[in-house]
Structure formats: C-alpha cells, structure tokens
Design a protein that fits this description.
Blueprint (H helix, E strand, L loop, with lengths): L2 E5 L4 H12 L3 E6 L7 H12 L4 E5 L7 H9 L3 E4 L8 H4 L1 H22 L3 E7 L23 H20 L3 E6 L2 E2 L8 H10 L3 E4 L6 E2 L2 E2 H12 L24 E6 L5 E2 H12 L4 E4 L15 H7 L7 H15 L3
Helix pairs in contact: 1-2, 1-8, 3-5, 5-6, 7-9, 9-11
The protein binds nicotinamide-adenine-dinucleotide.
Protein name: GDP-mannose 4,6-dehydratase
InterPro entries: Epimerase_deHydtase, NAD(P)-bd_dom_sf
EC number: 4.2.1.47
Length: about 325
C-alpha cells in the first residue's frame, strides 16, 4: 500500500487530505509542529481525529528541529511526500517575516532533502496564488510570468517553487507544486476572513471589509481541493525528451520532472457577494466596516484550472452557497452554538 508522508497534517488542508487518503486505504504519517499562529487546540483536535484511524501515525515537531524530520521519514519510508506545512497568511507576514523564511524556506529545504534521500515516487508541495503577485492577466494561468511577489509570504513560496525545480532537475525527483486559491470549509483556519466574518456576525461585532468590498477571490471548497491533490498524486511529472513534447498550456519544465498546477474553483467571487452568502447562511446581517486596501493584498485572484482538468479529468464542483452552509454548520457544532 502506498505510504504518504504529509507535513502540516494538523493544519486545515493536511487534515482533510489525510482523511481522504486514509479512507482510500493509503498509509499516512503526519508531521506537524503545532505552531501557535492560530488556536493550537483546533490543530490538536484534528490530529486526535486522525489518530483514531488505523494506518495513521504522527510526529509532533518543527521542520527546523535538526534531525526530527529525517528521523520520521527514515522510520516511515514514504513513497510520496505531500508538503503542506507552512507559515501561511498574507497579513501576518507584514509583521513577522522571519517565521516565513524559517518554515517556508529552511523547512521546505529539509523536506526536499528527505525526499531526495528516499527517492520518493512523487514530491508534491503547496505554493499559493499569492505568487502571481503583480500579475494582472486574469484568470491566472500556470504559464503566466509570476516573478513579482508582493509579500514575504509570496516570496518564500516562490522560493519553494524555485528550490523544488532545482532538486527535480538535479536529482530526477518528480515534483508537483500546487498553487492554491482561497480555501474554505469545515475545520477551517481561524485567521482567514470567512472564519472571522462568521464569528463576528454571530457575536454582533463589525466585520472589516477591505478595499470597500471591491475585491474578488477564487474561493475553493476544501473537499474539492483535496480531491485535486489526491488525483495529482497519480500524475508525477516526467522530464520531457524535448521541449516540443510539452503540450500547450502545460507548465512542465523543459529540463526537469517538475510542474506547477493551479487548484482553484475557476470562478471569481466579489467579496460583497461572499458576505451576502454568509449572512444568508447565518440568517443574520453583518455590521460592515468598510476599509481601504491592505498593503500586499491584490484586488483579484482567479484560477485558470484547465491544466488540473487536463491532467486529472477533474474540476472542483462545490458552489459557494453549499460550501458556506457546510462551514457554518460545522462552526455551530464545533463551538456548540
Ligand atoms: N488555506 C488557504 O487558503 C491556502 C491558500 C494558498 C496556499 N495555502 C498553502 O496550503 C498549505 C496548507 O495551508 P493550511 O490552510 O492548511 O494552513 P494551516 O496553517 O492550517 O496548516 C499548516 C500546518 O503547518 C504546521 N507548521 C507550520 N510551521 C511549521 C514548521 N515550521 N514545522 C512543522 N509544522 C509547521 C502548522 O502547525 C499547521 O498545522 C500551506 O502551505 C499554505 O501556504 C493555503
């Protein structure tokens, strides 16, 4: 049975991915440092649920702890590594840039080294739509230039893509980089806007709406996202014999078994419509605090998901209203409201 090592397994996406893979019979080892960027109790609860499943084991340590990740990888001997652990968040990166370099650059390097030593069948690593930065061509396609990051978060994720390319090239390590777009759903991240909106509306506190609501995001429901990851596990890139072998629209490197793939819903939603949908699901009206644009933010993200579809036959399919309703119902149950 395929053994998959997931970093960030107590995180939002890692938890959902582990659940999906375990349900399909994979053996999974989770690795997570339980950082206190947001509520650690929520991370522990996610891990507790996973630990009730056969074929799941976990290591609790930071990627930067010398030797810890190597020891976990050596004991488990993974066939595949999915690297999701990161210091995430655009706004936090404005005040805490070092955390991003430590986890997203040094930590990612540790993961790549272990992947090389074990010659894993496929290394898959999370990047972000934020790497499109100052690119204004919409929808964002993987073949667009994405060389102008606007935050240190985006810059460290872009560094991860570049380091991944070098290792894929040097060590013949099949590597897929995902670019995720705003991911939401049950067991979500308390630092993200939709989570803050729901808790504020339920407590009658105002919500901050940036750029006066004139923002667009490609919201991706977490179940759709992890299904995309699952399918991509089976599609390791192969080094092309010649650049002419690369299909139009494919981001496959001409010199390495490496590609980058957007996983997004391919639908750009106006922030104010998103707030309307949350109000509808809660049956309450928000107190709206209109704010200017935040430094480092971009007015719109929108995924071209053609490549994901051509590689896997899959398109994300959850509509916003059902996704928000599922989140709200999880939120009420989790916080016993
Ligand atoms: N959620 C989104 O909307 C979104 C969008 C774009 C990209 N991403 C990327 O997807 C990945 C997963 O994101 P998520 O939303 O699940 O975030 P998350 O914060 O819920 O999960 C990340 C996990 O990594 C762990 N971690 C952080 N630093 C670590 C370190 N140094 N060593 C070991 N573990 C560490 C954290 O404890 C956490 O449990 C990240 O790489 C993130 O950058 C997420």
């Amino acid at each position: 049975m395929t053994k998959v090592l997931i970093t960030g397994s107590a995180g939002f996406i890692g938890f959902h991915l582990a659940q999906l893979l375990l349900a399909e019979g994979f053996h999974v080892h989770g690795y997570d440092g339980m950082t206190d960027y947001y509520d650690v109790a929520l991370k522990r609860r996610r891990h507790q649920i996973l630990l009730q499943t056969a074929h799941f084991g976990a290591t609790e340590a930071l990627l930067e702890d010398p030797g810890c990740f190597d020891a976990a990888a050596d004991a488990f001997e993974p066939d595949v590594i999915v690297h999701l652990a990161a210091q995430a968040g655009v706004r936090y990166s404005l005040d805490n840039p070092r955390a991003y370099v430590d986890t997203n650059v040094t930590g990612t390097f540790t993961v790549m080294e272990a992947a090389r030593r074990h010659q894993v069948r496929h290394l898959l690593m999370a990047s972000t739509s934020s790497v499109y930065g100052a690119n204004t061509a919409l929808p964002y396609a993987e073949t667009h230039k994405a060389d102008l990051p606007m935050t240190i978060y985006a810059a460290t994720k872009k560094a991860g893509e570049a380091m991944g390319h070098a290792y894929a090239h040097l060590h013949d390590l099949p590597t897929t980089m995902f670019r995720f777009f705003t991911v939401y759903g049950p067991w979500g991240r308390p630092d993200m806007a939709y989570f803050k909106f729901v808790s504020a509306i339920l407590e009658n506190r105002p919500i901050d709406i940036y750029n006066h609501g004139d923002m667009y995001r490609d919201f991706t429901y977490v179940t759709d996202l992890v299904r995309g990851i699952r399918l991509l596990i089976d599609v390791p890139p192969a080094r092309p014999a010649s650049p002419d072998d690369i299909a139009a629209g494919d981001s496959l490197s001409p010199v390495a078994p490496w590609r980058v793939v957007n996983i997004g819903n391919s639908d750009k939603v106006r922030l104010l419509d998103f707030v309307d949908a949350i109000e509808e699901a809660l049956g309450r009206t928000a107190i709206r605090n209109m704010m200017p644009m935040q430094p480092g933010d971009v007015p719109a993200t929108w995924a071209d998901a053609t490549l994901l579809h051509s590689l896997t036959g899959y398109r994300p399919q959850t509509d916003l209203r059902s996704g928000i309703a599922a989140f709200v119902s999880w939120y009420r149950a989790y916080y016993a409201l």
